[in-house]
Give the backbone structure.
Amino acid sequence: MAAGPGSDEARRVRATMEKLAACDGDYGRLHALQAAKRAAWWEAQQGRLELAGPLSRRAYTLFLLTYLGLDPDEVPVVYEDERRIVWRSHNFCSLLEACWRLGLDTRDVCPGSEQSVQDFIAHVDPRLRFSRDYAHGIRPHAPYCEERIELEDSP
């Protein structure tokens, strides 16, 4: 699945495997391991960002294209309106690869990473909600991970 042992992808997989080991089965701890890195990035970059479009599109652009640096072809949008954007992730994922190598189920592990994504997109607007389709759209049980960002009504 991943490239050769000295590649950037291989290093990312090893680092992710170490994070999973540090969680000791409490995959919610993935949030804590990612949150500080993302918060520092936001503090350093926020004044330089120019995001346009509906709030859900801005969050998609911020997280996937700007922060993660993904190619839009790897995370194609399959639905979008003024309140919601849905995409299918086909990109390299160190968490997917680490789960495969460790014999872990992504349906158990990946929910632990959602809070850090949620916190990150809240910089665009705190009413935005990130989620994944664990029933029908999560790798390796599907050919992609189906993910979405939706704008909720104010409480």
